[in-house]
Design a protein that fits this description.
about 725 residues, alpha/beta, Rossmann fold
């Protein structure tokens, strides 16, 4: 039975957010209507809210099945920090503690209970007779499918749940599942006519970069520069082998970078300690095999580096998804060599599902070698089409030569359609090139209209073009149908002339000679501006609170919440309610501590301006022709800080022109918003009034421009 409180009120009261993210509200409404549900959302996309909010509206227990002890503890700590009665039950607890907890559950004192699949299966008789359950959530649901990248046999036994509780809705959630895996999840869990929600897999705050064939010495120099540019930030470096993790940590120490390593060959105690140190910010950088990171909800990982090629796109997406879960800008960097490919192929030869795993490795290699927007490829793999290039990957920043590929694509799609979409890549190319080999003749493929329509192109060129079509989402590969190609809805639009498509011109592969992608010498220290000092002050205070409560710092507040506090600088407890991530419980518990830090900072820095020298240094670099990005990187500031310097320099007439940093349209929008809000100094009200259409730094520059314009007129 549901209460009269609505989901929106629960979201604000307990989680501190005014609005749901896309799809969350619809998912929650369906769950509350007792509907089985399958949810696909990217890491950091807000999957947990989809069952945590209903749990607070339903009368009885919500049972959450999770495969990882670390994930359970993380989520339970986070729920408790928000004033929610939650607990976990797994093999790490002794028998006496388990009995005490089960009594709490039976007495209705627990709202959400996290449990491992093994423990749940062992306790099914008890739960079925002693506990009333309103909702069952299956987290990491891809683990139930043999087609998934992280198949776990114990998950397949969860199909008993629907038999035991036929009228209890099940919500299955995953961040990584292709079409065949989604279908398998529904069947394995016996979901009844489930509502299926697929959120956008796009994580625009994460930059994507791939580096090929970089020798070890140069690679280490680049990685060290990359890390020094992000001093005091958390990051993960994934390596292919246990030995490689240890070597990476040792090599980083030669550059003055402290890092731990983590792999399955270490004792459970060692791994637990290293993981805890990372979660609690005692260790900033971990060099690890893919065994590390599963189930870690650490929201402030700022970068993920792959020191070798991942074995499939699902794993790669999940691993880079551990960066920037708080929505703040984060970076990923993938290094690979042909040696990685050979080694991974050798591993696959000795594994089960050899053909499937080889094909998935091929797709990963195609992603790494592709000349088109990497985000388009990544999203297309999960069935999502990205119309415009992302402008946040290395390919977009250094574009390859493109052409109108509509006619070429139509030839390939037409040939594929005339085979009833029943051939793979190589046979399709043979048809297009007019091959008369035995398989083509036996299947009468030489008689179709488009036979030989592409004989002017080489086999290698067609491979490149078809891989681009695959990566762009015009076709998809059916792993469960002999790896044949299938035309997507997007592909049909191209085939029938409803849309056009650009392809990158095929060219002979050349060895890529890497250059320093950052282009400037990196200082090994971080200079803070005034707001940066407040942020660090708040981080230090958060660390003290976290240590006192024995939880990770990000459980108390995310970096995104702290940055919003820095931006808005609340002056009383009531104003904290408008900060994202500050629910009622956290405002009451931590609000006064935060206010004390803000007041302390304002006493020391509020009335004063930043040192004049910091503006002069920015001006000097600007006059030398450095870009804003380069100045920020060189000075170890965020770009927004450099833009604030420009605004000050323009206001003091040390800089005569800032017009190139914003458009005339932006200026007029800000001019109008300033009049309508009556706000001439604070950015947040104008930003909100413009419905976030104009970035903060542009508003700041426009306000400076308008202030000076008015002063010049008055003079």
């Amino acid at each position: 039975m549901q209460t009269t409180i609505n989901p929106q009120q629960i979201l604000k009261k307990h989680f501190g957010y005014e609005n749901f993210r896309p799809l969350q509200e619809e998912i929650i409404e369906g769950v509350l209507q007792q509907k089985d549900t399958l949810v696909l959302m990217p890491t950091g996309g807000g999957k947990s809210v989809c069952f945590q909010v209903p749990a607070l509206l339903l009368s009885h227990l919500t049972l959450v099945v999770s495969p990882l002890i670390a994930l359970m503890k993380d989520q339970v700590d986070a729920l408790k920090a928000n004033g929610i009665a939650a607990a976990f039950l797994n093999s790490s607890m002794d028998e006496a503690d388990q009995y005490v907890l089960l009594d709490e559950v039976k007495n209705g004192n627990i709202t959400l209970l996290y449990v491992s699949p093994e423990k749940l299966l062992a306790l099914l008789p008890y739960f079925s007779t002693q506990i009333q359950i309103s909702l069952i959530a299956i987290d990491e649901a891809h683990c139930i499918s043999a087609w998934g990248h992280d198949f776990r046999p114990e998950y397949t036994k969860l199909k008993q749940l629907k038999t035991m509780w036929p009228h209890v809705p099940i919500i299955a959630l995953t961040a990584t599942a292709d079409k065949i895996t989604r279908k398998d999840i529904v069947q394995q869990l016996a979901l009844q006519d489930p509502a299926i929600f697929i959120a956008s897999f796009d994580r625009p705050n994460i930059s994507l970069q791939v580096r090929f064939g970089v020798k070890k010495k140069k690679r280490m120099e680049e990685i060290a520069a990359f890390i020094h540019a992000r001093a005091n930030e958390s990051g993960i470096i994934y390596c292919l082998s246990r030995k490689a993790t240890e070597e990476m940590a040792s090599d980083l120490s030669d550059f003055g970078i402290m890092a731990d390593y983590y792999h399955a060959g270490m004792s459970a105690e060692e791994r637990t300690k290293i993981q805890e140190d990372f979660i609690r910010d005692k260790t900033k950088i971990i060099c690890a095999t893919i065994a590390f990171g599963m189930g870690i909800d650490k929201s402030n990982v700022r970068f993920v580096i792959h020191n070798s090629l991942p074995k499939n796109m699902e794993g790669y997406y999940q691993e880079i998804g551990r960066a920037g879960r708080d929505g703040l800008p984060s970076d990923t960097l993938l290094y690979y060599s042909l040696g990685d490919v050979i080694m991974l192929r050798n591993f696959i030869e000795d594994s089960g599902q050899k053909e499937l795993n080889l094909e998935k490795l091929n797709r990963m290699q195609q992603y790494a070698e592709s000349p088109i927007c990497r985000r388009k490829i990544l999203l297309a793999y999960f069935g999502e089409t990205l119309e415009a290039a992302c402008q946040n990957c290395d390919v977009c920043k250094e574009p390859r030569k493109a052409m109108d590929g509509t006619l070429l694509a139509q030839k390939a799609l037409s040939a594929l359609a005339r085979t009833n979409q029943n051939v793979g890549v190589n046979v399709l190319i043979d048809i297009l090139r007019g091959s008369h080999r035995k398989e083509i003749i036996e299947n009468n493929f030489d008689r179709i209209k488009t036979f030989g329509a592409g004989k002017d192109l080489s086999f290698a060129d067609w491979q490149q073009y078809i891989m681009q079509m695959l990566n762009l989402g015009l076709v998809e590969m059916a792993y469960d149908d002999n790896y044949t190609l299938k035309i997507t809805n997007f592909g049909n639009d191209i085939l029938y002339g409803k849309r056009k498509i650009d392809l990158v011109q095929a060219e002979e592969k050349k060895e890529f000679v890497p250059k320093n992608p950052w282009g400037v010498k990196i200082n090994t220290y971080v200079e803070q501006d005034q707001e940066g000092l407040l942020f660090e002050q708040l981080r230090a205070s958060r660390r003290v609170l976290a240590e006192k409560e024995n939880v990770p710092a990000y459980i108390i507040f995310s970096d995104a919440t702290l940055k919003e506090i820095v931006s808005k600088k609340p002056q009383n407890l009531a104003e904290f309610i408008h900060i994202n991530g500050m629910g009622e419980h956290k405002v009451k518990k931590y609000g006064n501590t935060l206010l004390k830090e803000i007041k302390s900072w304002q006493k020391d820095f509020g009335p004063k301006q930043p040192r004049q020298s910091t503006y002069k240094e920015t001006l000097s670099l600007l006059e030398q022709g450095f870009s804003i990005e380069d100045i920020a990187l060189t000075r170890q500031f965020h770009e927004s800080t450099i833009y604030s310097h420009l605004a000050h320099l323009y206001a003091t007439k040390e800089l005569n022109d800032i017009g190139k940093y914003f458009s005339a349209q932006d200026l007029e929008l800000v001019r109008k918003a300033r009049l309508e809000t009556g706000e001439t100094k604070q950015l947040a009200p104008i930003f909100a009034h413009l419905q976030e259409a104009v970035p903060h730094h542009v508003i700041r520059l426009c306000l400076s421009y308008l202030d000076r314009e008015e002063k010049d007129k008055a003079d």
